[in-house]
Design brief:
The structure is a single chain. This protein is mainly α. Helix content is 44%, strand content 8%. The chain is globular and about 40 Å long. The mean pLDDT is 93.
Length: 105
């Protein structure tokens, strides 16, 4: 027997995730801005739904964002940046598709 409607939304706390921020992956030097973005993402409301398996996706998102913002991204990098952001629930469209909503309290 179902415990609720299949289209029930998952409420994400507007205050964000309070779990410890995992370390950034090794293998490259991360800029200060990239390190700040890592923390920002892991403290986001969406991060309450992530586990360690998304560390790589978060890392490549940051790499792609850096390339896009510096004007050095190829078209495929810009597209992959969008896909990564959607996979992590970071766009309004992705929030809806994942059944998540950000709420106060």
């Amino acid at each position: 027997m179902s415990s609720g409607p299949k289209n029930a939304l998952v409420d994400l706390p507007a205050a964000g995730c309070e779990l410890p921020v995992p370390p950034m992956p090794k293998g490259r030097d991360w800029s200060e801005a990239e390190q700040e973005r890592w923390i920002e993402l892991w403290e986001s409301p969406q991060a309450t739904q992530w586990d360690d398996t998304v560390r790589g996706t978060v890392a490549v998102l940051i790499s792609y964002e850096s390339a896009v913002l510096s004007g050095q991204a190829s078209a495929w990098q810009a597209q992959e940046c969008r896909y990564a952001a959607e996979a992590l629930g970071l766009t309004p469209r992705a929030l809806g598709q994942l059944g998540w909503r950000i709420v106060d309290g």
